[in-house]
Amino acid sequence: MTRSKVDATDIDVLTDAVLTASRLLVAVSAQSIAAVGDAITLPQFRVLVVLDSRGPMKLTTLAEILDVNPSTATRMVDRLFSSELVARQQNPASRREVVIELTPAGRKIVRSVTRRRRTAIGKIVQRMPERDRRGLVDALVAFAEAGGEPAVDTGENLGWI
C-alpha cells in the first residue's frame, strides 16, 4: 500500500495500515522485553501493564480486561507470582476473592521495558517526515480511546504494546 493511494474512508485500508503498524509495535515490544532478560511473554507483560496502569484488581476483573477466560488469567498470574512479579492478597471485602497487585519487581520490569520501547519508538518517529507526524498524535489518541485503552498520564508510563 502506498500513501498516495490511501483512501481514508475505506475501513479495510485503514485496518490494514493499523495492522502493519501494530506488527512493528509488537516487534519493538518483544525486543524490549527480551532485552530486559526476564523470561516473560508478551501476554504476561500485558498483565503487568494492566496492573501498573489500573492498580490492584480481582482476578475476574483482570481476565475481563484482558478478554481471556479466568482460567487463562489464573495461569498467567500463577507464572508471574512464581517469578515474584505480582502478589496475591485476600480481598478484605470478600475473603473468597483474591486481589492481584504488582510487586516492586514487576513495576521495575514495566518501567525498564517501557523506557526501551519509548527509545525505539522515538527513533522510528524521528525518521518520519514532519508533515506525517502532525496528525499522528490525534489519530493514535482517537484509536486508543475507541479501543477503551486508558490515557497515559506521563511519558514514563507508556503502557502496553
Automatic annotation (TrEMBL):
What name does the UniProt record give this protein? HTH marR-type domain-containing protein
Q: Which residues form the HTH marR-type domain?
A: 11-145
In terms of Pfam families, this protein maps to: MarR
Q: Specify the species.
A: Lentzea aerocolonigenes (Lechevalieria aerocolonigenes)
One of this protein's GO BP terms?
response to stress
One Gene Ontology term of the molecular function aspect: DNA-binding transcription factor activity
- Gene3D superfamilies named among the record's database cross-references: Winged helix-like DNA-binding domain superfamily/Winged helix DNA-binding domain (1.10.10.10)
